Amino acid sequence: MWLPMLGLTALPHLGGLYGGYVTRKEVKIWYPTLQKPSWRPPNAAFPVVWACLYTGMGYGSYLVWKELGGFTEDALLPMGLYGLQLALNWAWTPIFFGAHKLKLALIEILFLTGTVGATMLSWYSISRTATLLMAPYLSWLCLATSLNYCIWRDNPEKKEE
């Protein structure tokens, strides 16, 4: 039973690896040109935080999967919401750092945060531990949403002529 645990725990990291690839160049060239609030975390904090968050959410998904007996009919909603939030999570970085679409990234992260909340609600009756493993992620998303908003507000997109 250790293979599903490892697989589901590692799964979120795949998007994190891709996000790191997209971000790597932009965090050195484009991101420093943006106006950012003074309270933003240092750049070095992001990979560490995301490694912890991805591990927690991944292990939480395993707990829910295990409690429901795998990918059963009962797992459709809680695991479907989890999959949706994971896809939204993976999509944010290419929108923000890749396409430099600050407003679209803000809209996307608002949907992501709501989907994480819905995932947590759907998990609560199945595994409170899994739900609690998502709490730091939801907290971080609130910070990230505020940061995205401030960056969008303080860096108006240039209109193409």
List the helices and strands and how they pair.
Elements: H1 2-29, H2 45-67, H3 76-98, H4 102-124, H5 128-154
Helix pairs in contact: 1-2, 1-3, 2-5, 3-4, 4-5
Fraction of helical residues? over 70%
Total E-strand runs: 0
Radius of gyration: 17 Å
Structural shape: elongated
Q: Per DSSP, what share of the residues sits in E-state strands of 2 or more residues? A: under 5%
* Mean pLDDT figure: 95
**Helix count, per DSSP?**
5
- Biggest β-sheet strands, sense, barrel: none
- Element order: H for helix, E for strand: HHHHH
Structural class: mainly alpha
Give the distance, in angstroms, between the N- and C-terminal Cα atoms.
58 Å
Regions with little confidence, pLDDT below 50 for 5+ residues:
none
Would you kindly provide a written description of the structure presented here, covering whatever features stand out?
The chain has 161 residues and is mainly alpha-helical. The protein is 77% helix and 0% strand. The protein is built from five helices and no strands. It has helices at 2-29, 45-67, 76-98, 102-124, 128-154. α2 runs antiparallel to α5 (128-154) and α4 packs antiparallel against α5. The longest helix is centred in the first third of the chain and has 28 residues, at 2-29. The radius of gyration is 17 Å and the shape is elongated. It starts with a helix and ends in a 7-residue tail after the last helix. The mean pLDDT is 95.
